[in-house]
Amino acid sequence: MGSAPVSDPVDPIDPIYVSDTVTTAIKILVVGHFAVGKTTFVGTLSEIRPLRTEETMTQAGEFVDDLTGIPDKTTTTVAMDFGRLTLNESLVLYLFGAPGQKRFTQLWQDMLNGALGALVLTDTRRLDQSFDIMGLLEEHGMPYAVAVNQFDGAPMFPEAEIREALDLLPETPLVTCDAREATSGAGALISLIEYLQTRTPQEQG
Amino acid sequence: MTPPRPRHDRGLVRPYVVTEGRAHPTRNTLDLVALVTAVPDRPLNGLSPEKRRAIELCRPGALSVAEMAGHLALPMSVTKVLLSDLVDSGHVHVRPPVPKAQLADARLLQEVLDGLRSRF
Ligand SMILES: Nc1nc2c(ncn2[C@@H]2O[C@H](COP(=O)(O)OP(=O)(O)OP(=O)(O)O)[C@@H](O)[C@H]2O)c(=O)[nH]1
Ligand SMILES: [Mg+2]
């Protein structure tokens, strides 16, 4: 079956179920260019072993259920990692890590739909590779914060220079983070949520 | 150049084993974080192996649509079709995640913030 996704057809891991008391599930996207640390970020914060799915798409961005008659070059595989974080007895947060893509797909639609916001991971050696993804989020009205993953040997720039290079709006949060450390990753998410709060009419009383 | 649209080009289309032929479901509305649980005591006869696996998976407790896809090792698109069918046939129950109007709700954001701060 061409669309069979993961290497192991039967997941051997017993699922850890969402607690009965949970009434609300929300999602945040963790996006960015190739090898920027998306999988690491999601894995570091997730309380379950992160899961992964893959979709085979045509170049036109349509799902492929059956590869009969479709030459290899016209399909691409899109992988998505996700993890879960229980925030209190009634609320869980899902983190979805997905690569940027030239074409908008149903999978992107599904991820954007109902997401609170996005964290764009970036790397100072390849800032320009974040443009596509930031453009996509803007097009769909998805608010985002930017987190610079400081890789070993990557140049350090003053914040103002990074802002300028990425052409960020003055209000867009820019933080540095190490995707390998939970407190650091959580700090980046906190910056995103604090930003979302500034966009929400404050409740009185 | 627009690439050819393969699904119109195929003369003989192999049946879609998993989704029983519906690659483009009319109901594409399941949220990736909607929580799925099996409805107890529903007969399973006549269901495909994938559907049975899906039901078994969410019998002990709730999982999101995305987690179902991950554990079943099926693409998200296929999982959504399976689950839509199982909702229609009364085998699974899906709890919508959070109404859109509440997404930017100040209380919800504060809860997320408090949760993150208390955990890390
Ligand atoms: N120094 C440093 N290394 C990191 C950080 N985040 C990830 N890495 C390393 O960078 C490499 C790539 O990380 P991944 O998490 O696989 O990146 P990804 O974005 O999921 O990559 P693709 O899915 O292939 O696009 C791994 O070797 C990580 O250990 C970070 O914040 N700092
Ligand atoms: Mg990855």
Describe the structure.
Chain B: This is DUF742 domain-containing protein. Chain B: It comes from Streptomyces piniterrae. Chain A: This is ATP/GTP-binding protein. The complex is a heterodimer of chains A (205) and B (120). Chain A has 205 residues and is of the alpha/beta class. Chain A has one domain: Rossmann fold (3-Layer(aba) Sandwich), CATH 3.40.50. Chain A is built from 5 helices and 7 strands, in the order βαβββαβαβαβα. In chain A, strands 2-3-4-1-5-6-7 form a 7-stranded mixed β-sheet, with helices on both faces. In chain A, strand 3 and strand 4 form a beta hairpin. The longest helix of chain A has 18 residues. The N terminus of chain A is likely disordered. With 120 residues, chain B is mainly alpha-helical. Chain B has a single domain, classed as Arc Repressor Mutant, subunit A. Chain B is built from 5 helices and 3 strands. In chain B, strands 2-1-3 form a 3-stranded antiparallel β-sheet. The longest helix of chain B has 14 residues. Chain B is elongated. The N terminus of chain B is likely disordered. The chains are: A alpha/beta (205), B mainly alpha (120).
